[in-house]
Amino acid sequence: MYNILSLVFKYLFIFVIYFFMINIIRLIYLDIKGINMTTFDKNTYLKLINRKEALPFKVKEYYSVDDGVSIGRGNQNNIVIKDQYISKQHLKIVKDEDEYYLEDLNSANGSFVNGQRVMDVIRIKNGDRINLGQVEFLFVNKD
């Protein structure tokens, strides 16, 4: 009787271990599959610094800037981010004579570049960090 019971528990234990290992392998696969391995071929773009999973709203990893963009919560913007701390029309980035400028559009919570609040139009350069609401972007200009 004890031999049969011990044999059943032995195989049950082996089954549980294999089930656990398969689930771990599946989670690793799903995590690797979720990594965006595509390269962004635009010359000027915003790269998300935050972890996407930590934000309570949808946001992309990369946004093309090209000749300029507007960012805000409202649907009329080029980049729409549904963050409650971002104004409907929060900021805009414009290109003028191969330079990029950021202007805060009188947003309630403000826009920050490298930790400094933007009070007027400022020139932004490659590597600047742009904070708005709960989101932080890295400005990349390969030109």
UniProtKB/TrEMBL annotation:
Keywords: Membrane, Transmembrane, Transmembrane helix. Gene3D superfamilies: 2.60.200.20. It holds the Pfam family FHA. InterPro entries: Cell_Proc_Reg/RNA_Proc (IPR050923), FHA_dom (IPR000253), SMAD_FHA_dom_sf (IPR008984). Residues 69-118 form the FHA domain. SMART domains: FHA. SUPFAM superfamilies: SMAD/FHA domain (SSF49879). The chain crosses the membrane at residues 12-32. This is FHA domain-containing protein. It comes from Acidilutibacter cellobiosedens. The lineage of its organism: Bacteria, Bacillati, Bacillota, Tissierellia, Tissierellales.
